[in-house]
Design goal:
By secondary structure, the chain is mostly helical. The chain contains 4 helices and no strands.
């Protein structure tokens, strides 16, 4: 029962992931609406996950993810259909949310009981 909060975090993180994918699939043509949706999800994510490391993970990804994508778009690797300045307005929020999802999923898996050495 000790790992229940981590398992719940994993389920919530997977839910955030699925929601973000579904939203981008259906709302990519409405970038301001998608940005608003990701902003609301980010607020709720911070209500759930608000440790210092959660905030650092979010904002590092919020800045570095789009910075890398901006470089890639400037050099022609790809382009976005409705960018604000080469990238969509919603992209930094999505990068931040992705970082929280990965962080919380990895913590849930790492908190699983250790497998005895003889079982490996």
């Amino acid at each position: 029962m000790r790992n229940m909060p981590k398992k719940k975090n994993a389920v919530i993180a997977l839910g955030v992931y699925v929601l973000c994918v579904v939203l981008v699939c259906f709302l990519w043509t409405k970038p301001m609406l998608l940005t608003g949706c990701y902003l609301v999800i980010s607020v709720f994510a911070f209500i759930r996950w608000h440790t210092a490391s959660d905030i650092i993970f979010y904002f590092v990804a919020f800045v570095l993810g789009p910075a890398g994508e901006l470089c890639a778009t400037v050099f022609g690797a790809w382009s976005y259909a409705q960018p604000f300045y080469l990238i969509p307005t919603w992209l930094p929020l999505l990068w931040g949310l992705a970082a929280l999802v990965v962080k919380n999923l990895s913590e849930a898996f790492l908190s699983s009981p250790e497998i005895p050495e003889s079982s490996r």
